[in-house]
Structures are given as C-alpha cells and as structure tokens.
Amino acid sequence: MRTRTKWAVVGVLAVTIAAATGCSATPEKTSSKGAAQQTGQQVETLMPTTVYVADQNGFVIPFNIKMEQTKQVAQATLQHMIAGGVGEASLVGTGFRNLLPEGSQIRGISVNDGVAKVDFTKEVNALKNGEDEQAMVDAVVWSLTGLENINKVQFMVEGHIQNTLKNGTPVGDPISRANGINLQMTSNLSPSQTTALTLYFEGKSNDANFAYLVPVTRMVPKQAEQNMIELTMAELAKGPNTAALEPVISPDLKLSKSDVKDKVATLDFASELAAKGVNPNRLVNTIALSVAANAAVDKVKFTVGEKAPTSDGLDLSQPVLIPQTINEQKL
After folding, report:
1. Longest Cα pair distance anywhere in the chain, in angstroms?
2. Domain edges within the chain
3. pTM, 2 dp
C-alpha cells in the first residue's frame, strides 16, 4: 500500500488576502525540508514559482510550487512543467499533471521588449490531439507571463518559428494572456462581436479532499458601452458553464455601482457579500482575481451600502491587494 504523501494542496484557502497596509505574497527562502534549519552545513533554499498544470477534468490551472533558487527562473519554471521530469514530485497526491510532453527540453530562452522566445526540442510536437496541444500552449504562456518582464511568448521548435504545432495550434506570432485560458466560445457569435472575460471558479479534486481556483475565459456579446467590472460580476453570478466547476458567487449578489481610481476598484454591493454557507475569504479571492483579470487594477475595495462590510475573520476596511499566490503547494 502506498504511503500518503506529505504534499497537499491548500487550494482556494491558500490564496493570500492582504489589506493595503498588509503584506503581499513575496518569494520565500526556506530549506529543502520546508523551514530553514541550521545544521552546520550550507542550507539549501527554495523559491516559489507558479506553474500551470492540468487538473482531472483537463482545465489548465495555476499551481504555486517551490523550486531550487536560481537566476534562470523562466527556464527552471518550464523544466518543472515537463511530464516525467523534476516537477512531478510537486504533483504527487493532487491528481494534477504536467502538460509539456515527456522528453521535451528547453534549448534556450531569451527575453527582449517583454517577449520571451522559447526554443523547444522536437518532442514538444509529440502531443496526440489539438486539445492537449492548446492546453500546453496556454500553460506555457500563462506560466511565463506571470514572471517579471514577460508579457508575451514566442514559441520556437529546434531553432525555428513555426506557424502551427503538429495538431494545428497557432504559434507563429507571440502569444499573450489576451488569448485566454480554458476558452469558452459562443458558437453563434464571431470573435469581433465578443468580449473576452477571464473568470475564476472553483474546482475540486475527484475525492473532494481539496478545492482550488480555475481561470476560465468566457466570450460574451460585445456591448456599445462596456463596464468591464460590471460585466465581470454579472458573468460570475451566472456561474460556470460546466458541471465540472462550481460557482462561488451567489446569483443574488448584486453590484450597486463600481468605480476605478488610481488602480483601485471600488465595488459597492446592495447586500452582505457572503450568503449563508459561503466562505467569505473564498468569495473575496474570486472577485478580486476576476476583476483584476479584466480591469487594470492592483487592489479592490469592498463596500456594502457604501460602508465597509462585516465578515467573520476578514478585515475589509481597507482595499485588498490582488492575490499573487494561487492554489499553493504546502508541506
């Protein structure tokens, strides 16, 4: 019988909520055993990075792991995303899987003007279908654009730019997060008639032992005058379009008004944020991440009737920083 792993996913609860006067998530230095311990020998240090992996339902999700300290963060991050490679240890017991094909190697990475050119070996073309191929591209793009100074990713294979990968996934031009993730298309509308919204919903492991946040890009009909925050809240209230994900926001939660000033979004609601049985921390995380994904904001201030809401164990008297750590791996 296999022994239980000590790795666990704290999932949604691991997303850090910090007030404007508090601390945001920053790289940590720990020993390879989790906490720094002086043993008379040199202490190895770990650093956090976020890799995008696939869950049991095929959704591409962020997963914050610890890896050895390095100055080559982009390359090390990708190496932890190769199936059968060094990153597999971080996924034990989660049901998640890495999306770069087994045997893939990174021949080189260069970053210029915000574009990371990543040269893969031919094994990157080994995936059997377009769905897995698109998921792999999404995972690489979202992992690298989460790093400092990278806004787009240019794929290369064996030193050459290809228009598409083997199964037809377009990679000829640099790709940004604007292309979306876990894309949900509207069949009766052309792309020019739609607006892309990235929303966060809740996923659960098959054994329901832990929950985690899943980003989904939903294409909605374009409006003449669009308020991205109002659109975001309206789509969150509708919930996910699949039974594999769960809503976090009650459809009864109504946004009275919103405003953005100095990259702080103020959201005023008509009633208390968390309905009975809803985790307020989880709700705040979902709203903050979704709003930040669709509007250029760094913080979100929550009010109810223009007053700071009351919530057990959660201080919302000050604007909340957008969480930097999502779905964290913990010892």
Report:
1. 66
2. 191-330
3. 0.85
